[in-house]
Amino acid sequence: MVLDLVARSLALRTRRPVALDGHLHPDFQPVATALREQLRSHPGGAAVAVYWRGRCVVDVWGGCKDAAGTPWTRDTMAPSFSTTKGIAATLMHVLVDRGLLDYDDRVARYWPEFARAGKDAITVRHVLSHQSGLYHIRQMIDRAERMRDWDYMIRAIERTPPIHPPGTRTGYHGLTFGYLVGEIAQRVTGRSFAALVRTEIADPLGCDGLYIGTPDHELHRAATLLWPTRNLMTPRLPVAAGVMHWALREGSPVLQRLLAVGGIELDLASILDALAPRGIGSFDFSAPATLRASIPAANGLFTARSLARTYAALAAGGAIDGVRLLSSATVARASEIQPRAATRAVIPFDMRWRLGYHGVLTTRGVPRQAFGHFGFGGSGAWADPRRDLAVALIVNSGLGTPFGDLRIARIGGAALASVDDPH
């Protein structure tokens, strides 16, 4: 009975007409088709941009930016969760390229207070490759709202010992990553992280919407995050957080044994530590107060075309339209797969970590040279230097994993099909 109702609901939604705005090259029609299919099955809106060989070949959008049904427009930006990490990492590579820091320097060289509590051996490379042992935000702060207070978060990190020796374990720094890279960037430049993103990436590339710490006059462009309320398979965020709590308290041993049968070692305690500070279920990532703050692991506000343009520069060896963001040598270092640590925490899979980026999964397989970052809720952006291709998706509705869902995989697969199997 329940399955029948769900099936009928899905059937009704798939018949809903979906209009897209924008433009695309005819060879990239599969990308538009994939976006239409996603908008039929998800409320809210989305935008996709694709660059190929230095040209914007897809720039399309559709759906609604809020629960009132306000149409998504060319200027709409969406909160993009961990997709933010890719932009934060890119800023770090810009600073390395300018000789302001090096990947193998100790963090404490630039941030002396960081050395407290046994952290003196942690390097910039450890931070960028998620091997610093500082993912346990739940043990650092008493409530999620603290994430809006940069100074509080920095002091909390300074007094916290690593949960394991650096380099011995890869543990996804789901929320702390941004404060770590952000404070390093601020220390070596003397400027705020939000200003650095604007002056070192967005302005030189001519990006029309790329913020990590959004100014008041741009907040009207932000889409509101819409959490599912009736989908049995994807509960609201507070419910999801509650399930995570229960799993840790009651179901952890049983669940871990079941997954171990399939060869997956799931550390539920590390997931809770990294992704669920107290109160995260009611923390509003699309609230103006949150968007004004800089949370460089999770609260970037972007257009798809700005994300795609940034990654297009990386795909082309660091430059686009005569503007050089990075040297080709730094792009090569930044995108090199890092040595695997002996064990993993938080994410039990091999993410093929680079320095701040991970490998790319699509419905057309795994392009081996591609790198980028996906986000909770469905967004994502990546570059493929072999194809000189960059792809970006932003959304305002849906749940998934901490590193994206199948929507970005399908958009990526459609882009690869358009390039590899031209009409």
Low-confidence segments, given as residue ranges, are 1-15, 230-252
> How would you sum up the major sheet?
6 strands, antiparallel
Mean pLDDT over the full residue set: 89
The total count of strands amounts to: 13
**Largest sheet strand order:** 1-3-2-13-12-11
Topology pattern, helix = H, strand = E? HEHEEEHHHEHHEHHHEHEEHEEEEH
How many individual helices?
13
Outline type: globular
For the termini, the CA-CA separation is 43 Å
User: Could you tell me the radius of gyration in angstroms?
Assistant: 20 Å
Based on helices, strands and strand pairing, what is the structural class?
alpha+beta
Strand content: 5-15%
Helix proportion range: 25-40%
Q: Which tags fit this structure?
A:
423 residues
Q: What's the layout of helices and strands?
A:
Layout (H helix, E strand, L loop, with lengths): L1 H13 L6 E4 L4 H13 L3 E8 L2 E9 L14 E2 L3 H15 L26 H5 L21 H9 L10 E3 L5 H13 L3 H13 L4 E2 L25 H25 L6 H8 L12 H5 L8 E2 L1 H12 L3 E2 L2 E2 L3 H7 L8 E3 L25 E4 L5 E5 L4 E7 L10 H15 L3
Parallel strand pairs: 5-10
Antiparallel strand pairs: 1-3, 2-3, 2-13, 4-7, 6-7, 8-9, 11-12, 12-13
Helix pairs in contact: 2-13, 3-6, 3-7
Summarize the structure.
The chain has 423 residues and is of the alpha+beta class. The protein has 13 helices and 13 strands.
Describe this structure in words.
The protein is an alpha+beta fold and 423 residues long. The protein contains 13 helices and 13 strands. Strands 1-3-2-13-12-11 form a 6-stranded antiparallel sheet, sandwiched between helices. Helix 3 (83-97) runs parallel beside helix 6 and helix 3 packs across helix 7. The relative contact order is 0.18. The model is unreliable at 1-15 and 230-252 (pLDDT under 50).
